[in-house]
Amino acid sequence: MTTEGRRSVDTPPPTPGLQARLGAAAGLVRRNAANTGLELLINFAAPYAIFCYLKPTWGDVHALMASSAPPIAWSVIEFARKRRVDALSILVLTGIALSMLAYLGSGGVRFLQLRERLVTGAIGLVFLGSVAVGRPLIYYLARATMLRRNQAAQVEEFEGMRDNPFFKRTMRVMTLVWGAGLITECAVATTLVFTLTIKQFLLVSPIVGYSFGGGLGLWTFLYARHAQRLGATRRAAAQAAAATEAQAAPSTAA
Fold first, then answer.
1. Sign of CA dihedral 199, 204, 36, 142
2. Which of 203, 206, 199, 205 minimizes the C-alpha distance to 53?
3. CA–CA distance from 92 to each of 33, 75, 97, 150 (Å)?
4. Whole-model pTM?
5. pLDDT digits (tens, 9 = 90+) for 108-139
6. Is there a contact between 110 and 193 (Cβ–Cβ < 8 Å)?
7. Please, which residues have CB within 8 angstroms of residue 117's CB and are 6 or more apart in sequence?
8. Rounded Cα distance, 55 and 74, in Å
9. In sequence order, what are the residues at sequence separation of 6 or more whose Cβ sits closer than 8 angstroms to the Cβ of residue 154?
10. CA distance 134 to 13
11. Which end of the chain has a smaller Cβ tally under 10 Å, C or N?
12. For the segment 46-60, what is each residue's pLDDT rounded down to a tens digit?
């Protein structure tokens, strides 16, 4: 038997469910490829090219300020187009506000490099503080996102679980992880500001930001799915226990 024949025998064909998931994933990649490429161009390549081009005549400070123009404009356009209310949009809006202040005010090169990173750290502290006061920020951001998408049924179900101890613990854990992740990103980026040249930082900083953002997003997705499965298992066990008690009640009464 040939190698291809053995492989076709040993390897089971993909199930319809797997094929559907793979097809959906491929479609998502195709739909987002152009937008992702444009975002990388604006947030990664354009700032570096603008800084290198303007630095000899404008100096470090003004060239660095000019290099921030494409990401700021992109953030404003994206927020106005999507109108999302989530952790990322809060980061974007706060970063935009601070960047605008940097344009209006004065500051050295290090300050300009640190502005968005310090905002990220401050928002991380807000996440942690929301847990400390018993109002996990992830809950309100998730609810606001569902309201924006007109998901009335999901919002009603989401709000109905608000007092469930397991649900409350899930919201706390997710908020704590996001807060710790944002503060860690701030610490890493701050360290890089004082150890790399400006050109090196412009190249490395987006990689750090995308890595932390992608990592937190992936963890959130996986943890939410795990919590949903665990919650379903607990509800099924509770229902089974209630059914057993209901069946035992008549015999006890007799």
1. negative
2. 199
3. 21, 6, 9, 23
4. 0.69
5. 777 777 876 787 888 899 899 999 999 998 88
6. yes
7. 185, 186, 189, 190, 193
8. 22
9. 146
10. 50
11. C
12. 888 888 888 888 887
